[in-house]
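Hey,
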Amino acid sequence: MNAQPDWKSLVRDVFAEGRPPGGKELWLRESIRLSRRRRLERRVNASIVACALVASSVFLAWKLRPVHRAEAMAALRNYTLIITKPLAPYAFVETKPLNASYLVTSSMPASVVHTSQGQFNAIDDAELLAFASPGPVILVRGFGGTEQLVFLDPK
C-alpha cells in the first residue's frame, strides 16, 4: 500500500470530522465567495490607484506646462500694447446737409446784460418774472447758484 502524505490525510480528517452532511460543499461555496470578494477588492483597489495616477499626472502636466512666450512677456511689461487697424469702408458714417426747410436760425443775436458792482437791490424770482412779463421768458438755473433770464421770441 502507498503511504499517503501527511497533509492529504490531515485535509481528509478536517473535512470529515465535526461537519454536518454537506458541510464540505458549504465550506467550498464559502471559500469561493470569499475568494471572489478578495478578487473584487483587488480590482477596485487597482482601479483606484490607476485613477489616482492618471489624475495626478494630468495635474502635474497642467501645472508644469511651459509658459507661452506672450504670457511671459506680458508679465514683465507694465503696459498693455493696443493694436489698431483702419475702419472698414462700411463702418464710415457720412452726414448730408439739411434742406432749407429744416434749418432754424435766430432772428437776432442774443444780448447779455452785465451788471456792475455797486448799490442795487436783489429781487426774487417772482419779481424778476413779473418785470419781464410783457413777453415770454424763462428762468434757467445753472451750477453754483447762477441763474439766467432768457427772453423767448414768440415769432
